[in-house]
From TrEMBL:
InterPro entries according to UniProt: Puta_zinc/iron-chelating_dom
Name of the protein in its database record: Zinc/iron-chelating domain-containing protein
Pfam families the UniProt entry points to: CxxCxxCC
Originating organism: Aeribacillus pallidus
Amino acid sequence: MINETETINKARKLLKKSADNQHRLKYYYGPEFFLNKYINEIKSMIIREYVLFIYEEARKISLKHFNNDLNESGLTPSCKKGCSFCCSFPISVLPFESLLIEQYVKDNFSNVQKKELKRNLKNTKNRVIKEVGKIQITKSYKEKYYQKDIKCPFLNESNLCSIYDVRPLSCISYLEFINSSKCQNGNISDSAAAFLDVESAIRTIVRSGIIAYCEYHKLDSKTYLDRYTGASQNDYELLPFSVDVH
Ligand code: SF4
């Protein structure tokens, strides 16, 4: 039997510990780290493939720490395969995340699946524009979006994520610890935790890698930082608008 108060307290503690650890990572993986450790990649790759490479590295590092913190907390997420309430939330995705998703779709989807996904992305985009309006990551926007029951275009007919291995950080870092049905109303419950610090740490690590690349090749880093990491919270996009399926 789950003690709700105890679980909520543990979840708050985990959130704090994870935030502290991810904060430390941001400082450890500065531009000098990339210039020292990944100089061969910096030298030989074009920037698009290099961004994908450092994002995958940053994702591994950051998620390893996050999973350690989660294991040590003794908490077990109540999120289960087939539960997909949070897949009707508006999901933010950063430009470098969409590179990874695009690559995954290219490598793993059949032509029929790609066609279907393209249709889903288009339909979802049209529904969002028509029924919810301009994207703003605010509480009322999220509620309005959820009420429209617009499912993520990557959710398949069995209620499973078709890009699970490369799903966006906003999907990975959202966990509920008491009962997944609490997500049913579209709100983040007291016993859920959105580990936004994971997303922010990975974004900072990717930024450091891009700065190192630009330093080496004598390029203006601002252009590439804007293009690949987004300059501010406003540059976050929702899934249907960012992923280009070829
Ligand atoms: S990407 Fe996957 S986990 Fe994330 S909202 Fe879509 S279907 Fe759900």
